[in-house]
Amino acid sequence: MRRVDVASVLIHDEHGCILVVKNGGPSAYWGLPGGAVEQGETLEQGAIREAKEETGYDIAITGLSSLREMYFTERESHALIITFTAKIIGGSIQVQDPDNDIVDVRWIDKDTAMELMPELTEMLRLNSDHDKSLAFYAFEGVKP
């Protein structure tokens, strides 16, 4: 089984809205900006690069939201998913994804997050007060 490190970012605006991206293709879904960390990158560098590519924003990492682990048996992958908290320091909202996987980017409130991505909202505990949440680890799947 191949190991994949995935870095994503949780960014809130001043109104408590969350920045999300829509991944296209036949199984289109909404999620946080992020993706696979490239060889030679740190987790933080990967998160910053992915955020820029997928949203157009320049960000600064402010903390750790979660460390999650998942097996994708159909892809024969073992993923470690690191979600950082971050703030925007520049740029403007626009998709610049070289892989053309991202079809939309937007700010959503907690209720909309529950509608568009209920499982991820629960997994990341986005329905709680983000200022009081502690970073956490969770194993999300069955061992192969």
Question: Helices and strands in order, then pairings?
Answer:
Blueprint (H helix, E strand, L loop, with lengths): L1 E10 L6 E6 L5 E3 L2 E3 L6 H13 L1 E16 L4 E15 L10 E7 L1 H7 L1 H6 L12 E4 L5
Parallel strand pairs: 1-6, 5-8
Antiparallel strand pairs: 1-4, 2-3, 2-7, 5-6
Please characterize this protein's 3D structure.
By secondary structure, the protein is of the alpha/beta class. The protein has a single domain, classed as Nucleoside Triphosphate Pyrophosphohydrolase, CATH 3.90.79.10. The protein is 18% helix and 44% strand. The protein is built from 3 helices and 8 strands. A 5-stranded mixed beta sheet has the order 4-1-6-5-8, with helices on one face. The chain has a 3-stranded antiparallel beta sheet with strand order 3-2-7, covered by helices on one side. The longest helix is centred in the middle third of the chain and has 13 residues. It starts with a strand and ends in a 5-residue tail after the last strand. The mean pLDDT is 89.
